[in-house]
Amino acid sequence: MPNATETCACAQETDEQKYERIAEIIEGYGAQKTNLIQILHMAQGIFGYLSLELQQFIADKLRLPLSEVYGVVTFYSYFSTTPRGKYTIGVCLGTACYVRGGKKIIDRLKEILNIGPGETTPDQKFSLEVMRCIGACGLAPAITVNGKVHKQVNADKLKTLIANL
Ligand code: FES
């Protein structure tokens, strides 16, 4: 058991060490195209996002063209090619949420955070994204903060919610 007073060394991990870890992961899964999505998930978990350089590294290991890896990364909304903020706020724009004010929520968040969907604040604290239905239609409009669902969100109360993060 690690000592509770020990500090985590993750923050000190160099990019080189992170690449080594990803190489090990690729070896563990098997350097095959069928494992690409799992490998991308792990790589995003390690780096926080999938830079073009990282995509090239994975493409080389799997002997795939970069365009193929890039195509997968940009197809799935949960992959990010830019660093994300500490808090990712996802606003549902599925039909129920849209009808009940989802667009107003986006507009209010744009005002408060001064960023648009797909962007991150300069202090790297918040990222904003738009989502499809997250299964809370009965209590729309809904948003997520780092995956946690907040239901019946009121645009006027967003400032408080953000201030408390
Ligand atoms: S439409 Fe937003 S939760 Fe379903």
Total of DSSP H or I helical runs spanning 4+ residues? 6
Major sheet: 4 strands, mixed
Low-confidence stretches: none
Bound molecules: FE2/S2 (inorganic) cluster
CATH superfamily of the largest domain: Glutaredoxin
The CATH architecture term of the largest domain is 3-Layer(aba) Sandwich
Helix content range: 40-55%
* Largest sheet: spatial strand order: 2-1-3-4
Based on DSSP secondary structure assignment, what is the total number of beta strands? 4
Q: What class do helices, strands and sheet pairing give? A: alpha+beta
The quaternary organization reads as: single chain
Radius of gyration: 19 Å
The CATH topology of the largest domain is given as Glutaredoxin
Topology record:
Elements: H1 15-29, H2 36-47, H3 52-62, H4 66-75, E1 87-92, H5 95-113, E2 126-131, E3 143-145, E4 148-150, H6 158-163
Parallel strand pairs: 1-2
Antiparallel strand pairs: 1-3, 3-4
The protein binds FE2/S2 (inorganic) cluster (FES).
